[in-house]
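Hey, resending since the last one bounced:
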Amino acid sequence: MNIWICASYHVNRCKSEIDYERERITQISFGPLKRRSSWPSSLITGLIGWNGFFVIVAVILGDSRSAGTFFLLATIAAVAQVCFLRLLFFFLRLNRNVLSAAFWGGLTGAAAVFAETRATSLFNQHRFIWIVNGLYIGTAVGLFLRYFYRDDRRIESEAGVSGRPIDYGRDAHWLEPFFFGAVAYLIAFLPKSFSLAVIILVIGAMSGVVAAGVSHFFIFAVRRESLLPILLSLLAGAAQGALSGLLFRPFAGELLLEPLVHGAIAGALTYLMTALRGRTLASKDTVREA
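The structure tokens again:
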């Protein structure tokens, strides 16, 4: 009988190791985007920041009909800034000094927008605001590039010390909230023009990040296994989404329902998707720790 118990123990242990290895392979099979300090991740970080705040500021300033053009200009600025900072990352000491990351990020961000103001008249009416916006975006991008680099190195160093495979954990899923929000808003609004689609993608992606943060730190702080957090997520999402619907008032003629109604539906769907995904990841973390 002891032989069977021993055999069963070793079989279960081998099975657990195989399952862990399979999960690890699945995690890294998505490529460099799982590693936030990789070049592709850095470019996406820049694109999210630049496109997000360019389009949102355009909407606030009443230029929502030109959102598609602002999106393209933001993309050019993002690629230019990220390539510059990544190529000179160590020379500018971004990996060592937070002030260097903020300074060079802000300087290159403001310079990118200033260069674009010389190339197009689209910024003429609010030139100063746009340059300040570039300064803010650039600073944020510089700081995030530094943070992602240092945090990834910390995770890799800890894995090396412990002798375990590198596992970025939840950080490997950093892009999912953006995706969930963008998809939810596209489903809820069903855009009929390029400018509207751009605004929906941007606001949806930003809403997804907010939803992930609220769900993780507040809604799911307690009683994670009950249905109450899911219901709270729907309510919080509907409220946040309704507020975001105010940004779509210039496109009311293109929408089937009132912008606030579309926003509430989009917000509720965003929170539902991020909450369910958060619960799944939390369950995996619990199993892994056990």
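Confidence is low (pLDDT under 50) at residues 1-30.

Sorry for the duplicate.
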